[in-house]
Amino acid sequence: MGLRWRRVLLLGLVLLVARAEAADVRRGPGFPSDPKLRHNQDFKPSGKLTRLSQTLWRFEDTCNVYVVRDGSRAILIDFGSGAILGRLSELGIRTVDMVLVTHHHRDQAQGLCDLRKPPFEIIVPAKERRFFDGVESFWRDVKLYINYDCRSHFNTLRRSIRVDRVIAGGERINWNGIELEAEETPGVTEGSLSYIATIDGKKVGFTGDLLAGAGKVQNWFDLHWDYYGFTQGIDASEQSFQRLQAAQPDLLLPSHGDPIGEPAVAMAANRKVYAELCLTTSITWTAGSSPAPGACSTTCRTWSVRRTPRSIPRRARTWSSFSTGRCGCAR
Questions:
Q1: Residue 75 belongs to a domain with what CATH number?
Q2: pTM of the model
Q3: pLDDT for 69-86, tens place per residue?
Q4: How far apart are CA 98 and CA 118, in angstroms?
């Protein structure tokens, strides 16, 4: 028997033994599938419907779905699982005219995949259209191995939906006397939008996943866009905060978390957290040209952490002789 076949036989024996041992473990009393170890910590949408003002409601689903009503008609900001459609009659709503989606994450719009012919207009961010009506192409071509793109595209819908209109930052939609202006607010995704409108006398911002409360974000990992770009999502969020502040909203309505009645305070809290995170990865420039403050994408060879919270293990505090890559922005 040749060396190659001996190796194949040995591998086969190893797999058989591993499979038998795994079966024994699964039958054991300590395996996590034991009913005694069940818990109720998994996320379950509450389905709570809360009135925020005279014509504005929040439905707590896989994300917050916001309902703006005018008589028996309404528009929805994000869609979640679609369970909101079964609750609209409680509000006297018979017709949904349009659904505006803030970004492409599955929890925002997964229910649209289950509707064969949605009876309303679907409006999505122009920069993210391919994640809505080109989903099959995305999943066919997505790179699984040696993938340095850390963006949260794996949270894309499971199949394509119909897109009736796309909207970009600065464009407006008028609906029954209410004007909604789209603002580019990248952070968790590059193409995220917020919608600004005056509703019941208050200037409201539907902000998606940009923030989830004062000093909070729904998923920190969504801010890490590129393998070498630790601060890209953070930097984008800062620009988004500036745009929102310029709009001067009275209330922010995030996709996750409660309404934010002090937008400036909440954004300042997020800035503080992000600044601390950036300080933990400050870099020492030892090769390549030294960048001017604010310059990005400069090549370097060594990263050195100047300040790190004590909670970070010592072995993770300093890197040296790092392979050449894009180091982000100088601070």
A1: 3.60.15.10
A2: 0.75
A3: 999 999 999 999 999 999
A4: 10
